[in-house]
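Below is the record:
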Amino acid sequence: MEGETAVVTITIYHNPNCGTSRNVLAMIRNSGDEPTIIEYLKTPPSREQLIDLITRMGVPVRDLLRRKGTSYDELGLDDAKWSDDDLIDFMMEHPVLINRPIVVTDLGVKLCRPSETVLDILPNPQQQPFVKEDGTPVVS
């Protein structure tokens, strides 16, 4: 109906210790929306949820693996012997291997690296200029 505002649902799989994740959260808020925040290291997605996110992103499972600051190398995850199911098992056992932030909106699901890629799936524009934590302007 005219005059009513649509309810916007945005979810971010977030790590508050990650600058990229913090920038994405700030850009979501700068669009005027408050997302559901899932700190995935404390509350990891279920296997079914993880598979659903990967499917909806339309990316290979390997693209969601995080290497920096994880046990990726120790586990030998760059070895082609690991199937997608194996890689998902590793992410379930070690959620830090899930790259972040993942954002879910009515417009899509994205791994938002670099952070400004979140702008592609936010239903509302940025409300004011935005500068990332490192000083890089995103919206002027």
User: Anything to note?
Assistant: The first helix runs from residue 19 to 30. The chain has a mean pLDDT of 94. Helices lie at 19-30, 47-57, 72-75, 84-93.
